[in-house]
Amino acid sequence: MGKMYAEIDDAMRAWVGAQHIFFVATAPLSAEGHVNCSPKDAAAFRILTPTSVAYQDLTGSGAETIAHLRENGRIVVMFCSFDKVPRIVRLYGQGEVITPENTAYKGLAEKFPDRPGIRSIIRIQLDRITDSCGFGVPFYDYVGERDVLEKWAFHKGEEGVAEYKAKNNAVSIDGLPALINQ
After folding, report:
1. Which domain covers residue 92, as residue numbers?
2. What is the average pLDDT value for the chain, to the nearest integer?
């Protein structure tokens, strides 16, 4: 049976910290817009306070999360266990995009490893924290981290990544502004 929490407690913090992947889902306000769900490397996730979290947003092929957050702020983060004890944790809230130009960026960036290709930090103020059994989640074996994205960003260099973001991350697939003027 699922449970709702007022905040992330120590047991949930430890469980989240043991996961290797999480998923982020956002949606535009328009009913015709596309819902987005993206897998993320859990090494890029931090619990800031019992009711706020953040993660490094690396340069990717699209910028749906950024565009949706700029439009309406709605976001849910989901962790699920693929081994041992089955469990799903969902963290709902209002997210904001913190780019390097933002005064809050430096303080947040210090909480994460320095990686090439970081385009922003997504900070989320949580308003709903739930868990559920996860009995239907299959077992998977964790093999290791991929380094392809970091190698790509390192090879491109800062200027190459900036050019890529300007070309591919300016707007969402629905035409919402994402990294315009970044």
Report:
1. 3-138+145-168
2. 95
